[in-house]
Design goal:
Radius of gyration: 27 Å
Distance between the termini: 68 Å
Number of helices: 15
Mean pLDDT: 91
Largest sheet: 10 strands, antiparallel
Low-confidence stretches: 10-27, 146-154
Bound molecules: alpha-D-galactopyranose
């Protein structure tokens, strides 16, 4: 085993060296030999590090710069380095490790179990040795050629992405001063979006097992100062509430100890020097983790005003021991900086995710309009009622029909059947084929809801394999929504789930899965021990990756009781996410604002549902429901069989309008023009056109004269035609007028009287 690992490491290194040799002429060097400085110049920002005299690697700085700024670090003065005193934080170690520093947070802590006798020289062992000091031993620049796929260049984002432009990866190799423990720092650079993906590879070439006790994927240092942190906080049905808070001196932690990303926090942040940035302007440092499991973002604001962010694994129940010859590669910490405020940071992340993270299946230029049966029929399914719904859906313009929960096993309610993924003969006596065939005949794609990681104790699978769930023998098994979690630490379980999903796709011509995950973890007892936190995520990723590799036309939507599994790691494997189970547009519009801080609209599934909302009991207009759902990937969840012909016609017209504006919504640049309590106004911009989306949803605005909402990104001297869903001509305006004064207010009394109103307009150059 050890020999195999050793050989594996050797082959990886040889392969890497070959790649380096092959790419040497292609890559920018990023390195100034005269000052031993690395500088990564990006479109409107930079990132710099330096190797000190004793080979420590320190962060020199990063920040936003005007486009075209020339960077020359070839004659930089000596880096300001303090001598050892009470505080050594001014070292700004690129990867803070535990050892000589032990009173600040670190990115990496290991314990060497024993000192080699050559080093102890008769001294008592003082083991374990918790002292890791990394020193620079070399670097390369290699090309991340997404077409070829390079398994060693983790983290992979699943499938080919929209852009296959090869990107440079700066690879910096470090080694402990005494032990053969190697740490390689990777920096994959996406200059046009000013984004660096950082990850680490730790390789144990010592003769003993090395426990890793803390492990971040990277540490980000921002320029010293007092900062405000913008992030989201939430819960089931109220995900992505935007919070901006001062980052006080001390430590602040965002995390989730789970097998999904979690509703309460989401692994991204925006940081700006207090008072120096807004939505529209100023320098904003941002970061996000490409990981869907036990994650943490630890913000350390020191009294010296040094601020650093450690992003990586949550370590409450963390265990990772590297055997001799073993390597661990972390997921990525994605980060960058914008000079265009929080809006600019969001646009950089959106562009990066659209072009380099989201899968790009054949024919997948735009996300289709989806119909989902959940709120229409819940568990009350039948071939006839679903065919009736599908016909109505096709007639109003739906392109993808998804049957939600209840089609399998004994799943007539949420207390039984999870785990038994065979079509229920009680519900569909002739299987799914008659429905699937009809859906396809109607010109739509066919999709199914699945919750592959879960099992109801009342299921055949559980009766056959009660040991296949996370548990501790002889202790209680806590249920959540009457379900337990399968133990993905068992390879046979992961294999079984792959086979089940594989045969569902094969037998039913499925081209869409809504992949759900409806509970948090408890009693995480697994045959793989504490590694289960990573093994579970790896199992989910590998099933998705295998399915997508085998079925290029298969799309996946990530759902976890709504928005519980949304992050850059899962977005490399799924095409869209279910942002929230809360489909009330008055709540959802703010969920969308928070989501949009980090994630692109293209991936944000949003449904139009009942007039009286099932989650909140609130009645809202069809206009508002569509205006809010049309901000992302549009879906319909209304029981269409209960609608009148006039209502269906209104749906048809609105869906046709959505299809006309879809290339802008799903591919354009988002400007959050106005976000205030009760107000959300967006403009989504492509070259010659914009979508203007406005929602006033809270309280009466009597007596408030609305400020003009100025548009952005137009050509001052061009003329723009403004139309609505009826294609009604709402006037022509010059670009300068729209950018100076905005659009005329909507609603009675110049928009003053109506407490709830919304509109979606197409603004197009004539
Ligand atoms: C979760 C999902 C819903 C629906 C139900 C089905 O709550 O978020 O959209 O699929 O499960 O049980």
């Amino acid at each position: 085993m050890v020999l195999l690992r050793y050989l594996g490491g050797l082959i990886r290194r040889l392969h890497r060296n070959w790649k380096v040799a092959r790419n040497q002429n292609m890559s920018t060097n990023y390195y100034y030999d005269s000052t031993r400085t690395f500088v990564i110049p990006m479109a409107e920002s930079f990132y710099a590090m330096r190797i000190l005299e004793d080979d420590r690697l320190v962060n020199v700085g990063s920040g936003a710069l005007p486009a075209g700024t020339i960077l020359d670090f070839s004659a930089m003065e000596r880096y300001d380095e303090s001598e050892y005193a009470f505080d050594v934080q001014r070292w700004r170690l690129e990867l803070p490790t535990y050892g000589d520093i032990s009173y600040h947070d670190v990115a990496l802590k290991v314990a060497f179990p024993e000192a080699p006798s050559s080093l102890t020289d008769g001294d008592a062992p003082h083991s374990p040795v918790r002292d890791l000091r990394l020193r620079y031993i070399g670097h390369d620049v290699v090309s991340s050629d997404t077409d070829e796929g390079q398994p060693w260049l983790a983290p992979e984002h699943g499938l080919p992405t929209k852009s296959s432009v090869a990107r440079d990866v700066l690879v910096i190799r470090m080694k402990d001063i005494a032990y053969d423990l190697y740490v390689t720092l990777f920096y994959r650079i996406t200059p046009e979006y000013g984004i660096i993906e950082r990850w680490l590879e730790i390789e144990n070439q010592t003769p003993f097992d090395v426990p890793v006790e803390a492990l971040a994927f990277g540490t980000v240092h921002v320029p010293n100062g007092r900062y405000d942190l913008t992030r989201t906080a939430g819960a089931w049905a109220r995900e992505f509430g935007t919070v901006t808070q001062p980052l006080e001196t001390g430590k602040f932690i965002l995390d989730h100890q789970g097998l999904n990303t979690g509703h309460p926090n989401n692994p991204f942040y925006l940081l700006n020097r207090r008072g120096e940035a807004t939505e529209h302007a100023g320098e904003v440092f941002f970061g996000a983790l490409a990981y869907s499991g036990n994650w943490s973002l630890r913000f350390e604001a020191l009294a010296t005003t040094a601020v650093r962010v450690h992003g990586g694994y949550e370590t409450t129940d963390f265990e990772l021991t590297l055997e001799p010859g073993e390597t661990h590669c972390t997921p990525a910490f994605v980060h960058g900086v914008s000079g265009q405020g929080r809006g600019g940071a969001s646009r950089q992340l959106h562009g990066f995710i659209r072009d380099y993270v989201l899968p790009n299946p054949p024919g997948g230029e735009f996300r289709p309009v989806l119909y989902n049966s959940w709120e229409a029929t819940y568990f009350d399914l039948s071939t006839e009622s679903q065919i009736a719904l599908a016909r109505k859906a096709a007639a109003i313009g739906v392109e993808l029909y998804c049957v939600d929960d209840g089609w399998f096993g004994a799943r007539r309610h949420d207390r039984a059947g999870l785990g038994d993924w065979t079509v229920s003969a009680d519900v569909f006596p002739d299987g799914l084929t008659p429905l699937a065939d009809e859906v396809r005949r109607l010109g739509m794609r066919f999709g199914l809801w699945v919750e592959p990681e879960m099992i109801n104790p009342d299921s055949d699978l559980y009766r056959a394999h009660p040991d296949w769930v996370l548990h501790y023998p002889g202790r209680p098994r806590t249920e959540g929504r009457q379900q337990l979690i399968l133990d993905f630490g068992r390879p046979e379980v992961v294999e079984h789930i792959f086979e089940v999903l594989d045969s569902l796709v094969r037998d039913n011509g499925i081209t869409f899965f809504k992949w759900d995950m409806n509970r948090y973890a408890s009693e995480p007892g697994s045959v793989s021990g504490q590694a289960i936190w990573r093994d579970h995520v790896a199992g989910v990723y590998s099933i998705m990756d295998q399915l997508r590799a085998k079925y290029p036309a298969l799309d996946i939507q990530s759902c976890s009781g709504g928005g519980g599994r949304i992050d850059i790691g899962i977005l490399g494997r799924v095409d869209q996410v279910w942002t929230s189970d809360n489909t009330d547009p008055i709540d959802r519009v703010f969920i969308e604002d928070g989501y949009s801080l980090a994630y692109p609209l293209r991936a944000m599934e949003s449904w139009v549902t009942h007039e009286v909302n099932h989650q909140t009991g609130r009645r809202t207009s069809l206009d508002l429901r569509f205006d809010v759902a049309m901000r992302g990937a549009l879906g319909i969840g209304t029981p269409l069989s209960k609608l009148s012909d006039d209502e269906l016609e209104a749906y048809r017209r609105k869906i046709a309008f959505y299809k006309a504006i879809r290339p802008i919504v799903q591919g354009g640049d988002l400007y959050r023009l106005r976000i205030e309590p009760g107000v959300s106004i967006w403009q989504i911009v492509v070259d010659t056109a914009s979508v203007y989306s406005e929602a006033f949803v809270e309280g009466s605005r009597l007596g408030i004269y609305n400020a003009p909402t100025r548009l952005v990104g137009l050509v001052a001297t061009s003329t723009y035609a403004v139309t609505d869903e009826h294609n009604a001509d709402l006037g022509q305006y010059s670009g300068s007028q729209l950018m100076a004064l905005g659009l005329p207010a909507s609603g009675p009394g110049g928009g003053m009287n109506a407490s709830v109103r919304s509109r979606t307009l197409l603004v197009k150059k004539v």
